[in-house]
Specification:
By secondary structure, this protein is of the alpha/beta class. It is globular. It contains 8 helices and 14 strands. The model has no long low-confidence stretch (mean pLDDT about 90). Strands 1, 2, 3, 4, 5, 6, 7, 8, 12, 13 and 14 form an 11-stranded mixed sheet that branches. The protein has a domain of about 150 residues: Spore Coat Polysaccharide Biosynthesis Protein SpsA, Chain A.
Length: about 300
């Protein structure tokens, strides 16, 4: 059994993506690793090239002038390395996602276990959505609960939903993947940046989904982490992946959830109602599920 890993990233240094940590977290079980780096480059290529000889770098123009409001799809950038992978299994993380070293044996064991099971097409990982700092994560349903991050090769699989999932089949007849839920985790650090860097990143990528007017109306030099309902923030009591420790040790800002305020919108109130119903039922009922759990 062989495993191909891949990711994609644009301006990892300028926007403070933990892509090095992400790649290093996957490398121990990967036989090859492919990274699609967006151009123009900000030095990301040299940093990634220095990680390991098994890494192959692909470069693709990032085409900012071709962005369509609400339609920029990260899966376009993910498909390029995806189609290059040669392994029996394909292991993907976004550039701000990391897996824990303690989960690697479980992940590799699951790949071996389900390699000959025709009903299982992918493997599901569940999220820790860190927010504000490395000490808290969000539990509200606004954030994805899980994502397919390992798929079998050779099934005509495509990345979909801004690289949040995979579909299988022809483009106009695609369906959800049948997956195994193995209890392993994705540690998502996309919302655990310094407030100034968080603002810079949001402005940079916000144009993929929002109009210039919406972006320009965002006030302040730093991102306001405190406009959040703190009842959906949980203190993280576990251990972070070892590859993240140096970055965590350099954290020079403080996020105190007790100072949070909450400005509800119609959208957030709808999520509140759905979350309330789900807590009573004891499972997630609403929102998109880009997979079908069969194991």
């Amino acid at each position: 059994m062989t495993i191909s890993g891949f990711t994609f990233v644009y301006h990892a240094l300028e926007l403070d993506y933990p892509v090095v940590e992400s790649i290093k977290s996957m490398l121990p079980i990967c036989d090859e690793f492919i990274v699609n780096v967006g151009l123009p480059d900000d030095g990301t290529i040299d940093v990634i090239r220095s990680i390991d000889d098994k890494i192959k770098i692909i470069t693709t123009p990032w085409y900012p002038k071709r962005i369509r409001l609400g339609g920029w799809r990260y899966d376009q950038f993910a498909d390029i390395p995806l189609f290059t992978c040669q392994g029996d299994w394909i292991f993907f993380l976004q550039a701000d996602e990391v897996v824990h070293e303690e989960d690697l044996p479980k992940i590799k064991e699951a790949m071996s276990k389900y390699a000959g099971d025709p009903e299982v097409e992918g493997i599901l990982l569940r999220y820790y959505e860190f927010y504000g700092s490395y000490d808290f994560y969000r539990t509200d349903r606004i954030w994805p609960e899980a994502a397919v991050r390992m798929v079998k090769n050779g099934m005509n699989v495509y990345s979909a939903n801004d690289a949040q999932s995979f579909y299988v089949g022809e483009r106009r007849k695609m369906r959800l993947l049948n997956v195994a839920d193995i209890g392993a985790r994705i540690y998502h650090y996309g919302w655990a940046r310094h407030p100034a860097m968080m603002k810079k990143k949001n402005v940079s990528v916000g144009k993929y989904w929002h109009s210039k007017e919406e972006i320009s109306n965002t006030e302040g030099e730093t991102f306001d982490y405190y406009n959040v309902n703190d009842k959906y923030l949980a203190a993280f009591k576990g251990s972070h992946p070892k590859v993240m420790q140096e970055r965590i040790d350099k954290c020079d800002w403080v996020f105190d959830p007790s100072k949070s305020y909450y400005k509800p919108t119609l959208k957030s109130l709808r999520y509140e109602l759905q979350s309330y119903i789900e807590r009573i039922i004891g499972r997630r009922l609403f929102g998109p599920h880009h997979y079908k759990i069969v194991r």
